[in-house]
Amino acid sequence: MEGKIVTIGEILVEIMATTFGDGFLEPQPLIGPFPSGAPAIFIDQVGKLGAAAAIVSAVGDDDFGTLNLERLKRDGVDVSAVEVLPGAATGSAFVRYRADGSRAFVFNMRDSAAGKIAATLAAESVLGGAAHLHVMGSGLPMPAVHGMVSTAIPALKERGGSVSFDPNIRPEMLRDPAGRAALDRVLAATDLFLPSGEELMMFAGASEETAAIAALLQTGVREIVLKRGKAGASHFDRNGRTDMPGFAVEEVDPTGAGDSFGATFLVCRRFGLGIGESLRYANAAGARTVTIKGPMEGTSTFAELDAFIAGATVRSP
Ligand code: ATP
Ligand code: MG
Question: N or C: which end of the chain has fewer CB within 10 A?
Fold first, then answer.
């Protein structure tokens, strides 16, 4: 594998309630800050696996920013294109789990440094040297992010690079015609598509999995990996499908599983591993993430994944 894997998007801290409940309407104990942000978790996982990695983002000139930068650097990520914005606060997310396992968030994103990501010279330089771009759908509504993605993709493809895409989207974005068009343009250039659950059907405009997969492969997407939570994942390409059951673990904190999973699958494939082995490692990365509190605390090295797999049991389908 040569060349860098690059992503663009938000760096945040996460602060978690330590009790279950509906939200944040009264004082209650919290734990954090933890490094977070879906693109940041993804790229941290790439770095931990020993692949060249960089992120284009922005943080404030504050402790929350420093915490994230130090973590990413420690794990081998190039942060030269993370702008430190004087006077801006690093983005944050407060999260509380409801009794049914769903999450209530208070985000400070749009008005934070994460909402001010810009096409700086450093960003252009990192994107210009990328061999692979990972696009997060959640960041595309930001004009600067969308602009960088649109400019980077044709150049990247021209030099033989590749693109992965995790839709990670809210349904409203698909209902907005401009949002839909932006997502479709990325999809048209996608080599590896990484939807989870409902996202597959929403994107393909199909009501059933097989039809959705066929429609997407028809549009030129080369590989699709459908994330199925505790049930594991399935891989689809023109040659067929490969299903891989998940590992049996106790879920402590689900945040970050999809990002660790996607990064691990991508890196394994780029290191030349087969589809089945790559799915197994990716399932292990996702499963390990959910057993550890904190969105980025559960990213793994290959040694940690090997140790996990050696001691783990696969869920019976
Ligand atoms: P996220 O919540 O980070 O957005 P996602 O919706 O993109 O996640 P999931 O399908 O929830 O993706 O999780 C990604 C992968 O992590 C799964 O395919 C599986 O391999 C692993 N995983 C997630 N939850 C569990 C679990 N409870 N037990 C075992 N493995 C899990
Ligand atoms: Mg997801």
Answer: C
Would you give the distance in Å from CA 73 to the centre of its chain? Answer: 18
For ligand 1, atom 1, which residue shows the shortest CA distance? 258
Q: Is 226 in the pocket of ligand 1 (CB under 6 A)?
A: no
Global ipTM: 0.97
Whole-number Å distance between alpha carbons of 77 and 54? 5
Q: Residue 282 CA: which ligand 1 atom is closest? A: 20
Q: What is the whole-number distance in angstroms between the Cα of residue 270 and the centre of ligand 1?
A: 21
User: Residue 1 pLDDT more than 80?
Assistant: no
The pTM of the full predicted model, rounded to 2 decimals, is 0.96
Q: Tally the domains of the chain.
A: 1
Domain interval for residue 226: 4-9+38-83+119-311
Give the ligand with the smallest distance to the CA of 254: 1
Residue 72 inside a domain? The answer is yes
Does 171 reside within a domain? yes
- CB of 300 within 8 A of CB of 288? yes
Instruction: Provide the edge-to-edge strand list for the sheet that holds 103-108.
Output: 30-36, 12-17, 91-97, 103-108
- pLDDT for 2 equals 67
Q: Which residue is closest in CA terms to ligand 1's atom 2?
A: 255
Instruction: Tell whether ligand 1 has an atom less than 6 A from the beta carbon of residue 246.
Output: yes
